[in-house]
TrEMBL record:
The active site is at residue 115. Pfam families: IMS, IMS_C, IMS_HHH_1. It comes from Candidatus Lachnoclostridium stercoravium. Its cofactor is Mg(2+). The keyword DNA damage applies. The gene is dinB. Belongs to the DNA polymerase type-Y family. This is DNA polymerase IV.
Length: 423
């Protein structure tokens, strides 16, 4: 390990479901532990609408997958117990996790609501052996917070993330440089971060079926089939190369955003705007929970060929209003989208500022005040009764493609460039 960094990747096992179970057991020690039965978070069992955001291990054995429609999951497992999402609970659970992890290193990158990278290079000498330290962290999280995590240990973020995705739940795995040939290269090509279904098919057509095949492939041949930038990136990943630093990201200096990989391609504005509304619901709630405002909005689209396009613009005044963010996002979408079918839609807000430093804008009017009061009322109801206790009428339609408050932080995933939900 001489000269190499030491990175831990912490990944909560079935985060949303685990956090829901911990909360229920804290209210009633005799309550059913949802982790022990076929269960899932998301959607509505009565209407069979929405998508699965998280599933238990017993549900996984029935073939239930994160991101699939509720109706499809219920066909696989008719006795599946569905519970509503509680975004505010997830935020608070995530904060508790980060506070615990801060005892081990100041260099923490919260990569999603249920994932974090820790750069342990400068502090591991305080704790001892890396694997024993990771095991101690896992045990503390289990005993003090009530849920379990996987921890991947590696010299960079890519390998740490790959390692944490090995056998689950509640495991520690290593993926050091000398372990790449035995642990990484035999895996199917689809298991590598940033390799989606389209790229997988293209590589399999030229005989690349494992990550090891990709690592040994001729880069010029890859470029001719996959494009130069993408070919270089995944070729480096296959060889375990990733120099990205662990970056502590202060909320007030960065932004708040969500994205969702859809179950089917979208090529019409109405559906795309409904997805943006779903994302605006969670982005707005997070801004209000952290008592900050945004000054800009950005919409991102990714089509089936991994082509990404985005468009951003400033807001007339700082806001945390779901409606204002949504309206601006739809306006941006209509300005730049040519209706090319897209599979991923993202919404980001930027130029974050604290409430106390924002002056009342001349542009704000009576409508703005009404929207603020509406958001406060909605947040209050959801905090008390759960995220699904109140939803906009547009999400009651039978053909709604997304849950009314779906989406997550941007983060790594071996199978997709963005998670569809919690795993």
């Amino acid at each position: 390990m001489s000269g190499e960094r030491l990175i831990f990747h912490i990944d909560v096992n079935s985060a949303f479901l685990s956090w829901e179970s911990v909360y229920r057991l804290s209210q009633d020690p005799d309550a059913l532990d949802l982790r022990t039965v076929p269960s899932a978070v998301g959607g509505d069992q009565k209407t069979r609408h929405g998508i699965i955001l998280a599933k238990s291990t017993p549900a996984k054995r029935y073939g239930v997958t994160t991101g699939e429609p509720v109706a499809q999951a219920l066909r696989k497992c008719p006795e599946l117990i569905l519970v509503p999402s509680r975004f505010e609970l997830y935020v608070e659970s995530s904060r508790k996790l980060i506070r615990l992890l801060e005892e081990y290193t100041p260099d923490i990158e919260k990569f999603s609501i249920d994932e974090a990278f820790l750069d342990m290079t400068g502090t591991i000498h305080l704790f001892g052996d890396p694997v024993q330290t990771a095991d101690a962290i896992r045990n503390r999280i289990r005993d003090e917070l009530g849920f379990t995590v996987n921890i991947g240990i590696a010299p960079n973020k890519l390998l740490a993330k790959m390692a944490s995705d090995f056998e689950k739940p509640n495991k520690t795995h290593t993926l050091f440089s000398w372990e790449i040939p035995s642990k990484l290269w035999p895996l199917p090509i689809r298991e590598l971060f940033f390799v989606g279904g389209s790229a997988q098919k293209k590589m399999e057509r030229i005989g690349i079926r494992t990550i090891g095949d990709l690592a040994a492939a001729d880069l010029d041949i890859l470029k001719s089939h996959l494009g130069e930038k993408y070919a270089v990136q995944i070729h480096q990943y296959a060889n375990g190369i990733d120099n990205d630093p662990v970056e502590s990201r202060a909320a007030a200096n960065k932004g708040y955003g969500n994205s969702v990989t859809l179950s089917r391609d979208v090529s019409d504005t109405d559906t795309a705007c409904q997805v943006l509304l779903s994302l605006a619901e969670t982005v707005g709630a997070r801004l209000r929970a952290d008592h900050v405002l945004c000054n800009s909005v950005c919409v991102e689209l990714k089509d089936w060929q991994f082509h990404v396009q985005s468009h951003q613009a400033p807001l007339p005044y700082p806001t945390d209003s779901t409606s204002v963010i949504y309206e601006k996002a739809c306006s941006l979408l209509k300005e730049f989208w040519d209706l090319t079918p897209v599979r991923l839609i993202g919404l980001r807000t930027g130029k974050i500022s604290d409430h106390q430093y924002v002056q009342m804008s001349l542009f704000e009017d009576e409508r703005s005040e009404k929207l603020k009061n509406l958001d406060k009322a909605v947040d209050s109801i959801r905090n008390r009764f759960g995220t699904d206790s109140i939803k906009r009428a547009s999400f009651l339609q039978k053909d709604s493609i997304v849950d009314h408050a779906s989406g997550k932080h941007k983060h790594l995933n071996p199978k997709n460039s963005h998670f569809q939900g919690d795993d």
